[in-house]
Amino acid sequence: MKTEKRIATIATITIAALAISGCATLPVYEQGLVSQNGMTFSDNPVQNEQINLLSQIEPGSAVSGGGQAAGCTACR
Amino acid sequence: MNRNPFQTIGAPIAALWSLAIAAAAPFERLDFSVELVDSDDVSLFQGNALTSAQIGNWDTQFSFSASEFSFDYVPVPFDLNGAALSRSESNNALQINGRNELSEKWTVLLGGGAYDGYNNFRSAWLDEYYRQQFSELGEVPGAELYRTAAPKGYNANAGLRWMYLPNSGYLQLTVSQLQDEIAPGYEIDFDGLSRGQTVLATSAVSLSTENVLSKRLRGLFTLRASETSERSTRYGAEYALNAALGDRWIARAQVGGSTENPQFDAHYANLAVEYAFNESISLYLDGRYYKDTGEIENSLFTAAAPGVTSRKFGLGLKWVGEEWSGRAYVAPISSSYEPALGNVDFFQNLYQDRDWTVFQLAFSRGY
């Protein structure tokens, strides 16, 4: 029962997140605000405020798998 | 702790490595950061250096990190074999990640890395407990199983990014394989000493999508699943939303969680508000809440952590120049554990409530 509840929760979060994800292109000339400093998802430590050592206090927030960070759309 | 973190090896190594790289011309970017997480009995330090270079068609990142974990080991009063002492452990890690844009829409990702040393202070704390209990058992059956730990690990990853909306949205799939040689756990009974796993293999998959949702909203959604030796699959999800509230105000929110059978659940939320004084200088405040139900730790027999709740409030300052940019951040964190289960009574000084302070300093130079 608990497993089913977990699966349902994950599915709900996934659907909700995908539902609010964009599905239309915003022209580059209209992306000034979303491309400014502080608005992009970056691996630059000045813009990325992640604390690497925090996972030692919060074991459930560790990014597992060693995969590459998603980076940012605007600067790629 | 009463230690000067800048006397640790991490900072000098990372700084020298960074300066050496900064002197080299062909690199596109250099990042350098240090962070200290400090409490009364535990001090965690990490220095990181990263540089980016174009090698053929590959945009390649080389990163190096050096960490040092120092702690005061204090056994519980009824631990007759225990002795209080201070211990420090270091960890050095190297990671190389590359991206190759096959076309405007498709990018392939490859990477790999290795580390040497304990990757968290808790493993070292537990290793000290096992060393004091079981390293000199003499003729006890199984005594030969005890060995001095030398943790290290390797990882490899591969991925594919599909830019399905030019400049506005992508989908990225990454698979990873990790192998960790760990400090094993030990247990003793009437049959003698027995040892837990010494090697853990982890397979992981991650799916991310980032989207420009409107003129003022950018979102990043990540799903993760990972499976470690003899454990159930751990699933994680995270959604981050950045909002431009005005020309000078930005809000960044993040919610996430992870779950693993049979009993682990964790969730967290983060909110930051940033105000830009001008194009170069901005100030931000953030807060974070984290809670889990207690950790699963199959590498050790009876050392699973009880549930923990933590809260963080921080203040940061950013400066962005033409070539150099920087950030300074400070935050207190309080972490509190649920009452320990009976089988971790010996670890109550490890799993104790703590007040931490985080310091971060980061610099980046673009060439």
Would you mind describing this structure in some detail?
- The complex is a heterodimer of chains A (76) and B (367).
- Chain A is mostly helical and 76 residues long.
- Chain A is 25% helix and 0% strand.
- Chain A is built from one helix and no strands.
- The N and C termini of chain A lie far apart (44 Å).
- In chain A, 37% of the residues are buried.
- With 367 residues, chain B is mainly β.
- Chain B has a single domain, classed as monomeric porin ompg (Porin), CATH 2.40.160.
- Chain B is built from two helices and 18 strands.
- In chain B, a hairpin with a 3-residue loop joins strand 16 and strand 17.
- The longest helix of chain B is centred in the middle third of the chain and has 14 residues.
- Chain B is globular and about 70 Å long.
- The relative contact order of chain B is 0.12.
- The N terminus of chain B is likely disordered.
